[in-house]
Amino acid sequence: MLLATPAALSPRAAPALPDAALALLNGYQRDFPLVTRPFARLGRETGQSERAVLDRLAGWIADGTVSRVGPVFSPRRVGASTLAALRAPADALERVAALVSAHAEVNHNYAREHDWNLWFVVTAPDAVALARVLREIRRDTGCPVIALPLRAEYHIDLGFDLIHGRRAVSAAPQRVVQAVELSAAQTQLVAALQGGLPLVTRPFARLAQQAGLGEGAVLEQLHAWLDSGVLKRFGVVVRHHELGYRANAMCVWNVPDTAVDALGARLAAADGVNLCYRRERAGTDWPYNLYCMIHGHDRASVQARLDAIRQDCGLDGYPASVLFSTRRFKQCGARYAREAVHG
């Protein structure tokens, strides 16, 4: 979804949630039940009715607390994607950001404190389409753009514990592997899924109808994608800012290629690190190859956590930069298929 008004990342109190609501929001970011009536099971497991679960999720999606309920695909296992940055004149930032966000292939678009002041993620069905979108963004905005493709993931999107601030940690560095070849039926399923699970009593039956498959085949395919790593997780996808994590910083280092995996593994295991990965450098324009994201309730807490992480992980001696987010122009699920059936 494209935000009607760009969201400034300013203080906002976290919502106070009753136990059943918190259990639903926090407990099913991963391991969502892939069964015929998943919301009924969530109700039984959290002590509420199926209708109450559906109403809560619909309300959270409406107010922005939840982005969607659905899949998070592993980076570059389906289609092609990259993080990209753009250098826009300060007085034209909103206009340029609107041009970038207008592309359906752009699913995240943030302003950050740096000369490279607009950061966005592009996901497309294949590398040719990805290159086309980047060319169009350069042409339409008239601004320099750098692409920073993923090279290895150390910790990416395994969910976030809203109670203790902990999260699952990837066991070992994972190299970017070749994208899987999707059949026509699988492509239709991805198209149906990418906007999120429909909030109905039998959502997988609805998906099956849209994708031209049987309900059992849809469930079997989702289990297979999870088992093979094509899906990183399936569940409730929350927005940190709406839940009180009002500050976030992208922290980057230029470290030797021979040391990046060891340092990345240490960084990924550090408390407070929500994402950690290695990306391609962009020459002298952008010499950094090691990244992490830190979210916190305020800027001071993020900075304090970063200071401790630098020391604990042996990163103090490397060239680095810290880019705090200042505006959120777009945040939605990635679009892997050319035509989304719903969402």
From TrEMBL:
<feature type="domain" description="Siroheme decarboxylase AsnC-like ligand binding">
    <location>
        <begin position="243"/>
        <end position="330"/>
    </location>
</feature>
<comment type="similarity">
    <text>Belongs to the Ahb/Nir family.</text>
</comment>
<keyword id="KW-0456">Lyase</keyword>
<dbReference type="InterPro" id="IPR053953">
    <property type="entry name" value="NirdL-like_HTH"/>
</dbReference>
<feature type="domain" description="Siroheme decarboxylase NirL-like HTH">
    <location>
        <begin position="23"/>
        <end position="64"/>
    </location>
</feature>
<feature type="domain" description="Siroheme decarboxylase AsnC-like ligand binding">
    <location>
        <begin position="80"/>
        <end position="154"/>
    </location>
</feature>
<dbReference type="Pfam" id="PF22451">
    <property type="entry name" value="NirdL-like_HTH"/>
</dbReference>
<dbReference type="GO" id="GO:0016829">
    <property type="term" value="F:lyase activity"/>
</dbReference>
<comment type="pathway">
    <text>Porphyrin-containing compound metabolism.</text>
</comment>
<dbReference type="InterPro" id="IPR050684">
    <property type="entry name" value="HTH-Siroheme_Decarb"/>
</dbReference>
<dbReference type="Pfam" id="PF17805">
    <property type="entry name" value="AsnC_trans_reg2"/>
</dbReference>
<feature type="domain" description="Siroheme decarboxylase NirL-like HTH">
    <location>
        <begin position="188"/>
        <end position="231"/>
    </location>
</feature>
<protein>
    <recommendedName>
        <fullName>siroheme decarboxylase</fullName>
        <ecNumber>4.1.1.111</ecNumber>
    </recommendedName>
</protein>
<dbReference type="InterPro" id="IPR040523">
    <property type="entry name" value="AsnC_trans_reg2"/>
</dbReference>
